Target: DUF4065 domain-containing protein
Amino acid sequence: MTSFPPLAVANAVLDEARSQGKSLTIMQLLKLVYIAHGWSLALLSAPLVNEEPEAWQHGPVFPSIYREFRRFGSQPIQGNSAGPFGLLSDSQRSIIHSVVQNYGDMHAFALSRITHEVDTPWFKTYRGGVGSSSDIPNAVIADHYKKLAHDRRATS
Model:
C-alpha cells in the first residue's frame, strides 16, 4: 500500500474535516494526521505517511506540516497546501474519515493530552525532552495503536 508525504495526508484531513463541517487549527491537524497514521499502521499494517513524526514538546509533529501551516497560529486553517496531493485508497480515506469524525471535534489541547499519556509512542520517545525532535519509530506507533484496537474490541 502506498504511503504519502505528510502534506498530502494533511490536505486529505483538511478536506475531510471541511466535508464534516469542521475547521481545524494547526495543532489539531498535526494530531489528527498522526492519529490517522497510527490507525493505518494498526489496521492496515501500512504507514499512511511516508515519514516518521518527530517528538516535539507538544506531541508528535510532522515538521513539513508545521512549517506549511504555522502562519495560522491558533486560528482555523484556511485552504490547503499547494501540494503534494495523493490518491489515497478507499481504506485510507475510511481511516481519515473515522479519525476526523471521532477526534475532529476535540480541542487541540485535549488531542495533545491523548498523545502525552504514559506509554504512548511520544512519551517513550520524548522522555522529558531528552528525545526532543527524535523520530518516533513506526514500529512503536503500530504497537500502540494495535493495543488500542485490541482494548476497544475487548470492551465492545
In short: Residues 26-43 form the longest helix (18 residues). DSSP finds seven helices and two strands in the chain.
